[in-house]
Amino acid sequence: MSNSEALFERAKQYIPGGVNSPVRAFRSVGMSPRFIAGGRGAHLVDEDGAEYIDFIGSWGPMILGHAEPHVLDAVKEAMEQGLSFGAATKREVEMAELICESIPGIDMVRMVNSGTEAVMSAIRAARGFTGRNKIVKFEGCYHGHTDAMLSKAGSGVMTQGISDSAGVPAGCTQDTLTAAYNDLSGVEALFEANPKEIAAVIIEPVGANMGVVLPKEGFLKGLRELCDRHQALLIFDEVITGFRLGFTGAQGYFNIQPDLTTYGKIIGGGMPVGAYGGRRDIMEMVAPLGPVYQAGTLSGNPIAMAAGLAQLKLLKETPDFYQKLNETSDHFFGELGEIFEKKGIPVQLNHIGSLGCVFFTDQPVTDYASAKTSDTEQFAKYFAHMLSAGIYLAPSQFEDMFISSAHTEEDLEKTLEAADRF
Ligand SMILES: *Cc1c(COP(=O)(O)O)cnc(C)c1O
């Protein structure tokens, strides 16, 4: 038995499924998870000493690679001064300034501890501001695991084959309406059927939790117009796309300004962080300024802020960071697609910037229903092959490949060679 297998046996006795988040279990690919001992750059080492080129990057945060020295130094410096005070600190101000000065759609921002919390709070603010209850979300989009958002919620639940979670009272999702991704007329119909009742439309501006699904030309703009016409708010959940497609995220990439934005993952540099922000008049609804209550004992804590700030500053100040990362990624995904084409294996290689996904299907993937046409057994074989070649992919057909600036040409070349041997 390997060290990872032994750890997994111990873990299963005391942790449900042996993991602290279901996406980490290798159930859908019929294997047991590798326990990771450490990482540096784009590389991971597991508890058995096996090395991998990592394409998960902690599910997005590690856009600079693991153990980035500036981020580690910032954490060490902050750590020496104490871990948490539950009081206002300077780094929170610097973080808020950096975000608000960089993102045109954000006048004010509140830090929280996860993407889940960011979305939950943004929705509460949207409801408080509009005085309406209903929320439109899209099938296959994941917005964290709060009750109201656990409806047609993408990868984690897709992979486990659970359509909706147990333990969520119907009352909690009764105000959650769902539409198909990329289907503007479906959203329009919901607005017509629920006049003056929809507080907000929330969307991943690039679907990144059912594999990668790109918004069709005009879709996001159409949502913006529909929301304006019906006095509803548009919320971009940029927990994955924020600071990844570019420093200004998907809203900058597509040039569409949402009313509220949620962040997580990259914004914490590997620490548990989330944030929500947006228009001043909406954010002024939040306590202690306004009647929408939201709080957090560890929110904005010095260590998380230090890690996040160090990472964001590097991203902002490195010349051509995103241009280079996106060019490298485009090239890589292009080559990966060609490998499958050459072999005659039908796949859809959806990609944008440093996010990509190989769907094992011959149908274009534009929404949840088409993503579901993928051959997950074929994916499981591909996953196992790549893992044994030292390539660590997400253990689910419905997750993404995340490229970081730490992936070298050699790393990417090795990955293509491994795919070529599949
Ligand atoms: C990961 C994710 C979340 C939830 O963030 P957590 O930090 O895991 O709570 C919310 N929205 C999107 C788009 C995500 O990818």
Question: What's this model, at a glance?
Answer:
This protein has 15 helices and 14 strands. The chain has about 425 residues and is of the alpha/beta class.
Description:
The chain has helices at residues 3-14, 69-80, 90-102, 115-130, 155-160, 170-173, 184-193, 219-229, 249-254, 280-283, 302-317, 321-343, 368-371, 376-388, 409-420, and strands at residues 36-40, 43-46, 51-54, 108-112, 134-138, 176-179, 198-203, 233-237, 260-263, 274-278, 348-352, 355-359, 391-392, 401-402. The protein folds into 2 domains: 3-55 and 320-420, Aspartate Aminotransferase, domain 1 (Alpha-Beta Complex), CATH 3.90.1150.10; 69-317, Type I PLP-dependent aspartate aminotransferase-like (Major domain) (Aspartate Aminotransferase, domain 2, 3-Layer(aba) Sandwich). The chain has 422 residues and is an alpha/beta fold. A hairpin with a 2-residue loop joins strand 1 and strand 2 (43-46). Helix 2 (69-80) packs antiparallel against helix 11 (302-317). The mean pLDDT is 96. It has a 7-stranded mixed beta sheet with strand order 4-10-9-8-7-5-6, with helices on both faces. The protein has a 4-stranded mixed beta sheet with strand order 1-2-3-13. Strands 11-12-14 form a 3-stranded antiparallel beta sheet, with helices on one face. The radius of gyration is 21 Å and the shape is globular.
How do the strands and helices of this protein lay out in sequence?
Layout: H1 3-14, E1 36-40, E2 43-46, E3 51-54, H2 69-80, H3 90-102, E4 108-112, H4 115-130, E5 134-138, H5 155-160, H6 170-173, E6 176-179, H7 184-193, E7 198-203, H8 219-229, E8 233-237, H9 249-254, E9 260-263, E10 274-278, H10 280-283, H11 302-317, H12 321-343, E11 348-352, E12 355-359, H13 368-371, H14 376-388, E13 391-392, E14 401-402, H15 409-420
Parallel strand pairs: 3-13, 5-6, 5-7, 7-8, 8-9
Antiparallel strand pairs: 1-2, 2-3, 4-10, 9-10, 11-12, 12-14
